[in-house]
Amino acid sequence: MRQFPLEMHQMAPGRVVEWRLRSTAGPAAPDTGGTGDAPRGVPADAAGRRASFNQDKHFTVAEESRGADDPVASWIAVTFEVKGVLDERALTRSLLAFVRRHEVLRCEFRRLAGELACEPIAAAELALDVVPVADFDSSEALRGFLVDRFKRSIDTLSWPLFTMGAVLREDSTTVYLAFDHIVCDGLSMPIVVHEVQNGYEALCRGEEIDLPPAPSYLDFAEEQRRRYLSIADDDERLGYWKSFMARGGGEFFPRFPLELGVEPDRMYPIVNEASPLLDAAEAEVFEKACRVVDGKPFMGVLAAVAVCLREAGGPGVYRGFMPVSERGRAGWANSVGWFVNTMPIEFDASPGRDFTQVMAAVRAGFGEMMEHIDVPFVRAWQLLAPAEFAARSWPYPVNFFSYIDIRKCPGAERHEDWRPTSHVWSARANGACSWFQRDADGLHMNSIYVDTAAARRTMDDFQEALRSTVREIARHGSFRRPVALTAPRRPLGASRNDAAPYAPSALRRS
After folding, report:
1. What is the rounded CA–CA span in Å between residue 81 and residue 63?
2. Which Gene3D superfamilies does this one have (predicted)?
3. I need a surface site. Which of 173, 182, 215, 437 has the fewest CB within 10 A?
4. Which residues partner with 130 through β-bridges?
5. Is residue 420 part of a domain?
6. What is the DSSP letter of 69?
7. Residue 422 domain-assigned?
8. What pLDDT, in 10s, does the model give residues 397-438?
9. Has residue 230 been placed in a domain?
10. Helix or strand run (H / E) with residue 262
11. Handedness of CA 37, 39, 43, 49 (dihedral sign)
């Protein structure tokens, strides 16, 4: 399972149906395309439970941008394959069980007395209606429909906050689900696939769905707010953040160190790209090289990123943001929600330091970071950078690194059969974000960045340098040589992939 733009998905055409969620406490919801509020089964005066800090900030940005007629939009989507003739009734039951199981998916969000309430609709009140959509005879037309559908139907301010559908063929089906970020994160996508597929297969065998416990994300949010809502800017738990800011000239956000050609206070259309960095065999050797110097694969990738940024003109000390999953701390491994805390990390990657030394610095920096992950990012942001917190976006291009080993996610042992893919999209940006995924086929990179000529040149050179660096580590267990960005410059917009078009090897069979 890997993450890449939906537009790059090699999906066979077919007949599209969708499952529309509604509350049986009210009339059936019309297809508003995400442009208005659907009928709800929740009393208007319900006090509700409180949203998490991540959810509150996300919803606030959506409110403010809508009010300024400057909408901010994004979605996270997943697709997977069902072999053979689809049992539509079984899939409907599995999808409904999935939605009922995860309380956050049943929530509507409303602003009450300044706080964001998330009131879940009772599981028993939910129903799904199967709606025929259209027949598509080309993959291009199908992808265009899905991209447009996700953009229209995912709306932070409207319920429901996700869409579900499938592309039916005679001998296979591609199931798709797309979510607003307010109800899930990237690690929720493997959980979606695992639960819907296992539920479907059990029902097809005539069995009941049997899944391990999945505590509610709303309980997580409630505990988080109880622990951190009352802290002040002089709380000692903010010491790590304060020291990080002090070493960065007082700035809360670590700047992306390369030229992207952006103007202050301006958002841009995006480029969304993906490419392979290492194949399966190379990734195994890369991991061994990292273990030899007492590091983990993600540390090796981060070390390579730091060295490449430095060689491209960035500083010797790497400073960046790194999302950290909070699922493992209290049994949330099977839960859908936004279990992510974003933390700053800093380490020395100065010229002259070899692979072993940089890896030791990464390990130390990561260890220091993990000792201070208790304070939620949004709360630290609000307390330590209130002026930036009031804005609708991060103030300038921010250095951001994310790594997921999909092989450790629920259901990974079945990914060869299910062929899942994940996709992220954002309407606009003012910087660059990169996500790295390790799966059974190797190491992969997905980047979203501003669509400027300078950013295209910068990211093209950076990706070429990074691919070369991780391969040098795999082959020689070291950086081996200075990482100079000397790859021949391709015309803007030309493919930077080793193989074109980029499509996961498993997807090429569809």
Report:
1. 36
2. Chloramphenicol acetyltransferase-like domain, Nonribosomal peptide synthetase, condensation domain
3. 215
4. 19
5. no
6. T
7. no
8. 999 999 999 999 999 999 999 999 999 999 999 999 999 999
9. no
10. none
11. negative
